[in-house]
């Protein structure tokens, strides 16, 4: 009597199905408008750098921009200081 159950030597080799293609970074297309303050405009434009980075590179850019904006606000406070009118 012969057994018609396929054994390991007769089973078809299954190739893994291709996964979704992973695209590289692509621009989000978020418009950045000038503010009129050159220092702030440079920082806002720096945000565009994330368009060309993978997500693991975003944090460095965001922290850099945040630090620059915070420093700009701190400088505004320092100029106004106590006892001066603005």
The unreliable regions are none
Tally of strands: 0
Indicate the structural class.
Answer: mainly alpha
Q: Please report the number of helical segments.
A: 2
Q: Rg to the nearest angstrom?
A: 28 Å
Query: Assembly type of the shown chains?
Result: single chain
Largest sheet: none
Helical content band? 25-40%
* Average pLDDT: 81
First-last Cα distance: 102 Å
Secondary structure blueprint with pairings:
Elements: H1 38-46, H2 58-80
Task: List the keywords.
86 residues; mainly alpha; 2 helices; rod-shaped
Structure commentary:
- There is one protein chain.
- By secondary structure, this protein is an all-alpha fold.
- The chain is built from two helices and no strands.
- The longest helix is centred in the C-terminal third of the chain and has 23 residues, at 58-80.
- The chain is rod-shaped, with a radius of gyration of 28 Å.
């Amino acid at each position: 009597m012969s057994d018609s159950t396929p054994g390991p030597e007769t089973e078809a080799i299954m190739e893994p199905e291709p996964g979704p293609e992973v695209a590289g970074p692509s621009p989000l297309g978020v418009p950045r408008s000038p503010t009129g303050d050159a220092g702030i405009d440079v920082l806002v434009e720096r945000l565009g750098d994330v368009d060309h980075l993978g997500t693991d590179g975003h944090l460095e850019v965001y922290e850099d921009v945040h630090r620059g904006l915070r420093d700009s606000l701190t400088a505004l406070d320092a100029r106004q200081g106590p006892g001066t009118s603005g």
